[in-house]
């Protein structure tokens, strides 16, 4: 596995680097737009989803959102979810997309 050194001096994997680049692209291009279509149609979307699925807390965050948070706040935006849970915007985007896709 190829490693790069992050800003904090610890090694980061290539997936993490792509996730960081994709997150920065989301911030730069869309200014945290809550429109799913422009993100889902991005060529890097599958890489973001794969990276988010590899995150240790992802299944727990997704379960919490599906079982509790959406009942209280059904129209929560990815931006507000990220702030509420203290998670990256990309993770919030993937979680909401997947949970709302099931509904």
Question: Describe it for me?
Answer:
The chain has one domain (3-102). The protein is mainly alpha-helical and 103 residues long. The protein contains six helices and two strands; from the N terminus they run ββαααααα. Helix content is 66%, strand content 6%. A two-stranded antiparallel sheet has the order 1-2. The longest helix has 17 residues, at 14-30. Helix 1 (14-30) crosses helix 3, helix 4 (58-72) crosses helix 6 and helix 5 crosses helix 6. Strand 1 (3-5) and strand 2 form a beta hairpin. Residues 1-8 and 26-33 have low confidence and may be disordered. The protein is globular and about 35 Å long.
| Terminus-to-terminus distance | 37 Å
Count up the domains.
1
Q: Provide mean pLDDT, rounded.
A: 78
Which overall shape is indicated by the principal axes computed on the Cα atoms?
A: globular
Radius of gyration (CA) equals 14 Å
Which stretches are poorly predicted, pLDDT < 50 over at least 5 residues? Answer: 1-8, 26-33
Note the run of SSEs as H and E: EEHHHHHH
The main sheet comes to:
2 strands, antiparallel
- The level of helicity is 55-70%
What structural class results from the helix and strand content?
Answer: mainly alpha
Query: How many individual helices?
Result: 6
How would you describe this structure in keywords?
103 residues; disordered N terminus; mainly alpha; 6 helices; globular; two-stranded antiparallel ribbon
């Amino acid at each position: 596995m190829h490693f790069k050194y992050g800003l904090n001096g610890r090694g980061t994997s290539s997936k993490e680097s792509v996730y960081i680049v994709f997150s920065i692209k989301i911030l730069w291009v869309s200014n945290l737009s809550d429109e799913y279509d422009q993100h889902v149609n991005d060529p890097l979307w599958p890489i973001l989803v794969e990276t988010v699925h590899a995150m240790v807390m992802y299944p727990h965050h997704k379960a919490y959102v599906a079982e509790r948070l959406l009942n209280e706040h059904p129209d929560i935006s990815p931006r507000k979810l990220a702030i509420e849970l203290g998670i990256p915007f990309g993770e919030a985007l993937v979680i909401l997309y997947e949970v709302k896709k099931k509904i």
